[in-house]
Design a protein that fits this description.
The structure holds two protein chains of two kinds.
Chain A (H helix, E strand, L loop, with lengths): L4 H21 L12 E8 L4 E4 L4 E3 L7 E7 L6 H15 L7 E7 L7 H9 L6 E4 L2 H10 L4 E4 L8 E5 L2 E4 L4 E6 L5 H13 L1
Parallel strand pairs in A: 4-5, 5-6
Antiparallel strand pairs in A: 1-10, 2-3, 2-6, 4-9, 7-8, 9-10
Helix pairs in contact in A: 2-5
Chain B lengths: L4 H28 L9 E8 L15 H7 L8 E10 L5 E7 L3 E11 L4 E6 L3 E3 L4 E4 L4 E8 L8 E8 L3 E9 L3
Parallel strand pairs in B: 1-10
Antiparallel strand pairs in B: 1-2, 2-7, 2-8, 3-6, 3-9, 4-5, 4-8, 9-10
The chains are: A alpha+beta, B alpha+beta.
The complex binds copper (II) ion (CU).
Chain lengths: 203, 182
């Protein structure tokens, strides 16, 4: 029998118990800094591009610098994944309270044929009046999307409603410098998104 | 056995009564629950739909004309929504949801959304949803849904509307759908 086993195992056990106790007592910040999405490290600069806001005014992503920007590529025709994500973003922003003022949610349409900037803006306003909807020329939208690794493509699948659009459903989070810092996969809860936005706000 | 034929008759009629009572109870159980009326052991629960506007994306009357002209009459005029629900099959035979009708939308289709490993969402029409014997089919966000295309009127939170589900075996089942946020 090796003599070191018992003291080493014993002290490990004690450390474990103390650690568990500390976590239970809330001394150790376990969970507080948990990030649910994928962190981009180092933050990735993204190419700027001019899109169109409601009313036809030119909007650039760099306009939002100083805020944490959560960008979602979607389309208003989508009744399922897009509204789920936008509703979660709205609840997450609400959960942040005052700090939520430093978060800007932007939806860029991947269906500019049907979604004018006005339609896109009205759609996102239904989730939160501070959300911004952007549209514009499809080539410009594709440029912004590709710059962030976002894919979208029109598909004819025999729906009587017309074409559908396949698109990346991930939310891209830019830090206050406008660099890509975090990617939130589809399906995170509002609480998880709030955790992640809190983390980016602290960076 | 020494039962007389009269006794046998009595037994048979009692048995018959018991069977009838059980059937009646079963029917009452199947039809009694709120929002479900499925025969043949099908139970539809928790039907809800997202709010939606009668114009795509927006709602202001001033924009109502824009989409139709911009689309060149291409796609559905009117916004979209989706119905989600859970169907349990307590029967011994598989069934299949093959169609849905409601006068709230110009077109109703059964769709499936899915997200692939690279995070890309795709949505496609599917011919139906199987409900295995003794199993459950859950139509939920990010998966199967009943897509309402071209809403004929606005769907507001708290609204209720009827929809008729068509099953391969069980036939038509009318349910009540509640409009709410997820
Ligand atoms: Cu659909």
């Amino acid at each position: 029998m090796r003599r070191w086993i018992i003291p080493v195992a014993g002290s490990l056990l004690i450390l474990l118990l103390v650690g568990a106790g500390a976590v239970a007592a809330g001394w150790l910040p376990v969970g507080r800094d948990t990030v649910h999405g994928s962190v981009i490290d180092p933050p990735l600069p993204i190419p700027d591009a001019t899109l169109t806001g409601a009313g036809g005014d030119a909007r650039q992503l760099s306009d939002f610098r100083g805020k944490v920007v959560a960008i979602y590529f979607g389309y208003t025709y989508c009744p399922d994944v897009c509204p789920t994500t936008l509703a979660a973003l709205a609840r997450a922003k609400q959960a942040l309270g005052k700090r939520g003022d430093d978060v800007q949610v932007v939806m860029i349409t991947v269906d500019p044929e049907r979604d004018t900037p006005e339609i896109t803006q009205e759609y996102v306003s239904r989730f939160d009046p501070t959300f911004v909807g952007l549209g514009g020329d499809v080539a410009r939208i594709r440029q912004v999307a590709t710059g962030m690794g976002v894919y979208f493509e029109k598909q004819q699948r025999g729906s009587a409603g017309g074409y559908l659009v396949d698109h990346t459903a991930t939310v891209l989070v830019l830090d206050r410098n406008g660099d890509l810092r975090l990617m939130l996969p589809y399906g995170l809860t509002a609480e998880q998104i709030a955790d992640d936005l809190r983390w980016v706000l602290k960076q | 056995m020494t039962h007389s034929s009269g006794e046998r008759m009595r037994w048979a009629s009692m048995l018959g009564l018991v069977v009838l009572a059980v059937l009646a109870l079963g029917l009452a159980a199947a039809c009694g629950g709120r929002g479900d009326g499925a025969p043949a052991g099908l139970q539809v629960k928790g039907a809800w739909a997202r709010p939606g506007l009668a114009t795509p994306g927006g709602g202001m009357a001033s924009h109502a004309a824009t989409p139709g002209t911009a689309m060149g009459g291409h796609a559905a005029e009117g916004g979209t929504s989706a119905i989600f629900l859970t169907i349990s099959n307590h029967g011994r035979e598989a069934d299949r949801l093959v169609g849905v009708t409601t006068d709230l939308a110009k077109t109703v289709e059964i769709h499936r959304s899915s997200i692939d490993a690279s995070g890309v969402m795709r949505m496609e029409p599917i011919p139906g949803v199987d409900i295995p014997a003794g199993g459950t089919a859950e139509l939920k966000p990010g998966a199967e849904h009943i897509m309402l295309i071209g809403l004929t009127r606005e769907l507001k939170v708290g609204d209720r509307f009827p929809a008729t589900l068509r099953f391969e075996r069980a036939g038509e089942v009318t349910i009540e759908v509640e409009v709410r946020e997820p």
